[in-house]
Amino acid sequence: MGYFEYYAKNPNAPAYTYQQFPQHFVWCKRVKQWKIRQQGFAIRRMYFVSPNAGELYYLRMLLTTFRGANSFEDLKTVSNGDVDEVHNTFQDACIALGILAHDGESEKCLQEAVVMQTGNQLRKLFCIYPITIAGTGKTFLYNTIARRCRKDGKIVLTVASSGIASLLLDGGRTAHSTFKIPFEVQDDNNISISKDSNYAQLLKEVRLIIWDEVSMQHRFCVEEVDRLLRDIRSDDRHFGGVTVVLGGDFRQTLPVVSNASREQTVGASIRGSLLWDYITVLTLNHNMRLEQEPENLEFADYLLEIGTNPKEVVNLPSTMGRCQNMHELISSVYPLLVMDEPMSPKYLNERIILSPRNEDVHKINMDALERLHGETYTYFVADKMIQDDHGRDSDFTTEFLNNLSPPGTPPFKLDLKVGCPIMLLRNLAPKEGLCNGTTLVVTRCGRHVIEAKIITGEKAGEVVFIPGITFQPSASELNIQMERRQFPIRVAYAMTINKSQGQSVKYVEIDLRTPVFIHGQLYVALSRCTAARRITLLFSNESNVSLDPVIKNVVYPEVLL
After folding, report:
1. How far apart are CA 296 and CA 421, in angstroms?
2. CA-CA distance, 48 to 69, in Å (whole number)?
3. How far is it, in rounded angstroms, from Cα 178 to Cα 167?
4. Distance, CA of 142 to CA of 318 (rounded, Å)
5. Helical H runs in 40-172?
6. What is the DSSP string of 187-233?
7. How far apart are CA 138 and CA 403, in angstroms?
8. Are 223 and 238 in contact (CB under 8 A)?
9. pLDDT in tens, the chain (561 residues)
10. What is the C-alpha separation between 52 and 201, in angstroms, rounded?
C-alpha cells in the first residue's frame, strides 16, 4: 500500500514495478513510507504464489509487470487505444495485457481481424494462427462464418444439439430451445409457431443456420425444422431456401433412443434421413485439439483407428496413466480437493472425470464432494403424481417416486458445498448464460435459492441465482406421469461420456470399470484431452493394470461418412 501511496502522490516519478521498487527506494519505518535510496543496492524477493491461488496469482503477475501503479484499480486498468478500460478481475487484466494465455485468445484475434480486414488477409490469418481449440476446429470455423455474415447485417442462427456445445458458439443456443422442438420427438410432429408471431418474422429473415453436433441429434428434429422453415417462409425448397451448415463427427455417440436396437439407433441418425441426399459433405481432418507434439501426432492416428475400426476389443496405449481405485482416481485429477483454499475456475475447467453410466457418475461426484472441506447443504425434492385425463391419481407412493432417477432430472437428495462445481440441467435464461450444460461454482447456499458463479461460456465470472423448478420426466421413460421440484443442477466433478461431447480439457480421468456400450463412447472419452499423457484410466479389479489392457469398443461402420 505504501508503493501505491508513493505513486499516487508522485505521478511523474520514474515508474518501476513493485518488484523493482526496493532497488531504488528504502522503507522508512519512522514515517511509514518509501524514501529514495541514497546509497547501497538491494534486491527483494516476492513471495511465491501458486497458479491455483486464482486472483492472488494474477495480482502477483500484474505487480511484476505493471509500472507505477497507484491502486488496485489502477492495476486492473488497461489502455485500449484511446480508451482506458477497468477490468473486473486481475485475471481479466492479465489477459487484456497479453501476459496470460487463455482459451479465447484465437477468438479475440479473429474478432479483431474481422473488423479490420476481410478476404485474402483473413484467410491467411486463419491458416497461420496457432489455434488451440473444441477437435478439428469446427467451432472456430463456425464462429468465423457467423461473425463475417453478421458484420454484413445478415441474421445468423447458431445452434447445437447439446448445451455444452452451444456455449462455444457466438450467440449459441440448443436446437430444441431455438426451434421449439418437443423433447418427445415423433416422425409426424410439427412445430407450432404462428406465422404471425415475431419469432416467425425472424425466421423469415434468417440467412444462415449453423447447427453443431448434428450427428447426435435425432433425424426427426432436423426434418421438423425443415418442414417448419418451408411452411413459415412459404418456400418449398429444403429449409425454406435458408443455407444450413450442419456439423458433427459421426465417430462420436449417436442419438439416444431408449431400448433401441443397432438398426434403430443408426436409423435415428441424420444419415438415415431423406435430407442426406441433398447435403454436400466437407471435411476437416487435422486434429487441432491435441497439443502439437510428436507423441500426440501418433495418438491422433490412434484415435482415428478407435473411431473407425469395428474391431470389438482394442489395446490402450501404455503411455496413459493407471489408477488402482476410485480414491486414487479422484486424488489424481483433483489434488487440491482436500485443501482449505478454494479451487479456481480455471483449475476446475481444466479437468474432468468421465464414466459411461449415470449411476457411476453420481457415486464419483458424491465421493469427491465428501472430500471437499465445508458444510454440506442437503436439498430434498417434492415429488407428486400428475392426475390422468379422468382426474384420478395413481396408487404410487411418494416413497416410490423419491427412489426414481429419471433421465435429465436432479436426484431426490441433492448434496452441495460452497466451492463445488455444478452443471445446469435445463435452459433457465440462455441470454444470461444459464443453459443446459453450463458449469458453475457454488458460492452460497440458501434455503430456496443457490448463488453460483458461471465458469464457462461468454458469461464466465458472473454471479447468478438458481431457483428450484418443476420437472416433468418423459412418461415414455417411466410409464407414469410425475412431477419433481428441485434445483436444476447436479454436482459436476464427473460427467457421463455422452455429456462431455464438445469439451476440451487438460486432464481427463476415465472410469472404465464398466465397459463402454454404445457407438463412439470410447472415442469420445479418449478424444476430450489435449494430450495423451494427461489421460488416466481406472479399470475393474479383474483387469491387470501392469500389462497393456484391452477394452471393449463399439463402432457402427454403416453410420460413418
Report:
1. 29
2. 21
3. 13
4. 36
5. 55-63, 72-75, 90-97, 105-116, 120-128, 138-151, 163-166
6. TT------TTSHHHHHHHH--EEEEETGGGS-HHHHHHHHHHHHHHT
7. 41
8. no
9. 888 988 898 888 888 888 888 888 888 888 888 888 888 777 777 787 776 677 888 888 888 888 889 999 999 988 766 678 888 888 888 888 777 755 555 555 555 555 555 555 555 544 444 333 476 678 888 998 999 999 999 999 999 988 878 888 888 888 988 998 887 777 777 788 888 899 999 999 999 999 999 999 999 999 999 999 999 999 999 999 999 999 999 999 999 888 889 999 999 999 999 999 999 998 887 777 776 677 788 888 899 999 999 999 999 888 889 998 999 999 999 999 988 878 888 899 999 999 999 999 999 999 999 999 999 999 988 888 887 665 555 667 777 888 888 877 888 889 999 999 999 998 888 778 888 889 999 999 998 899 999 998 878 889 999 999 988 887 656 677 888 889 999 999 999 999 888 788 999 999 999 999 999 999 999 999 988 889 999 998 765 555 567 889 999 999 998
10. 49
Alpha carbon distance 411, 403 (integer Å): 9
- On the 0-12 / 13-18 / 19+ scale of CB atoms within 10 A, 402 is middle
Phi-psi region of 346 (alpha: psi -120 to 50; beta: other; left: phi over 0): alpha
> How many residues comprise the chain?
561
